[in-house]
Write a structure and sequence with these properties.
By secondary structure, the protein is α/β, with parallel strands linked by helices. It is built from 20 helices and 9 strands. Helix content is 55%, strand content 11%. Helix 9 (218-233) links the parallel strand 7 (205-209) and strand 8 (237-242).
């Protein structure tokens, strides 16, 4: 029975997402049992659960309603540790009399601990921590976080909410602007607008995501303006997130935008190379995974768009490795990146590698190319050839040509020599790792 239920779910899911996403994130999942309206699924690791819950929650909710009915639930089993996640499919506004338990509607995986910080987001994270210590009574009310897609806005604002809940009995409510707008429309149809307003003005900390979607919804903005003012007067914490800064938000009333700007506005920028590397290493360590250091550095260099795509590459690699039982190598990594990241034309050429290696060994590129046989020059030349083969698509003959017209057998010998020295000389191995970092860091 459980297999049939999950097959029915997969059939619906497959029709609603692209084939690559389905193969990567849903195909590896297996059903285990079905009891008391609860379907138990086995997932390869916690990463799968986090990704699916973060990106396909609505699709799962709708699917469960269709297959199991309104009372259907999902229970995930990950690495022999059972984590019960009840998908109660409730997207409707709860009544104002609901107990404080209701307000725990945040994704519990979004915490400050897992929000890796760097130059791109350190100010926002520090402000978030300050708010969570004293919500409502701080200089950062409201807090307005903005930035492009996949830079961690939702993670950060929900981390604040989770911290507040853990530290106090305060009521925290997270909602997207689209859901708020739908609640407003439903309240008008059911003649319950007063109840809607009552519900919101009694919240201790209101978190609104994607406020740019208030654009053009004049009546919704009017109601939200009233709620915002009431919460602000009562020293309740307000946290907002958008894809643009307040001054760039089109289609929003000036008085509303003015309120948004009255507290702290902070931008989440694209993560730099070191932050991207830290994020990957955190994920890998947290999930107790094993991926070659050079591959992790390659991912961090190539995927400079946003955190979501960075994690997407890592998840896809894990999924592929789980399905095929193959090791994660550089060829597979390049293939996955090309399918997920739109612009992967950040080619590292031989000239660039020669510049990095020559600086590291304190010799000139001309010396590297000539026929000098001094040991330090030979090693530098071999290292540059080694990285040229690893990072570029040039043929062995072409690589040899760029090093003073040497033939392909010289390149083969150079690569083998470097590999041998890596295996036998720890100091040399560290040097190779350092050069690798410099090449990737640009």
């Amino acid at each position: 029975m459980h297999k049939k239920h999950w097959e029915d779910c997969l059939s619906i899911i497959k029709d609603n997402i692209n084939s690559q996403s389905f193969t990567t994130w849903f195909k590896p999942i297996k059903s285990k049992s079905y009891k008391d309206m609860t379907l138990t699924l086995i997932i390869p690791n916690k990463f799968f659960y986090e990704w699916i819950e973060g990106h396909y929650l609505k699709l799962l909710n709708d699917t469960i309603i269709t297959v199991l009915g309104e009372k259907g639930k999902i229970e995930y089993e990950v690495s022999n540790v059972t984590s019960k996640i009840n998908e109660d499919n409730s997207n409707k506004l709860e009544s104002v009399e609901t107990s404080k338990q209701f307000f725990n509607n945040l994704n519990s995986n979004f915490k400050f601990k897992s929000f890796v910080s760097g130059k791109c987001n350190s100010v926002a994270k520090a402000a978030g921590k300050r708010i969570s210590e004293n919500p409502g009574s701080n200089p950062f009310n409201p807090l307005m976080v903005y930035g492009g897609v996949g830079l961690g806005k939702t993670h950060l604002i929900q981390s604040i909410g989770n911290k507040i809940i853990n530290k106090s009995n305060s009521s925290v409510y997270y909602v997207t602007s689209e859901k708020f707008a739908n609640q407003f429309i439903d309240s008008l149809k059911e003649n319950k607008l007063k109840d809607l307003i009552n519900f919101y003005v009694n919240i201790d900390c209101l978190i609104i995501d994607d406020i740019q979607f208030f654009k053009g919804k004049e009546k919704t903005q009017e109601v939200f303006f009233h709620i915002f003012n009431q919460l602000n007067l009562n020293n309740k914490q307000i946290i907002l997130a958008a894809d643009k800064s307040p001054v760039e938000l089109d289609g929003l009333e000036k008085r509303l935008v003015s309120r948004f700007k009255s507290g702290l506005t902070v931008e989440l920028e694209k993560p730099d190379y070191q932050t991207r590397l830290d994020i990957l290493n955190y994920k890998i360590q947290n999930e107790n995974l094993s991926i070659n250091k050079e591959i992790v550095e390659y991912i961090a260099f190539q995927v400079d768009t946003n955190i979501r795509e960075l994690e997407g590459v890592l998840v896809s690699l894990l999924a592929h490795s789980t399905i095929t039982k193959e090791d994660i190598n550089i060829e597979l990594t390049k293939s996955i990146i090309s399918k997920i990241v739109k612009d992967t034309n950040r080619e590292i050429d031989i000239k660039y590698i020669q510049e990095i290696v020559s600086k590291y060994f304190h010799i000139s590129i001309e010396e590297m190319k000539d026929k000098a046989r001094r040991k330090e020059i030979v090693i530098a030349r071999q290292v540059a050839m080694y990285f040229s083969k690893d990072f570029t698509n040039n043929s062995l003959k072409s690589i040899g040509f760029h090093f003073g017209g040497r033939d392909h057998s010289t390149v083969i010998h150079a690569v083998q020599s470097v590999n041998d020295m890596i295996d036998t000389d720890n100091f040399f191995k560290k040097s190779i790792s350092e050069i690798n970092k410099r090449i990737l860091a640009g």
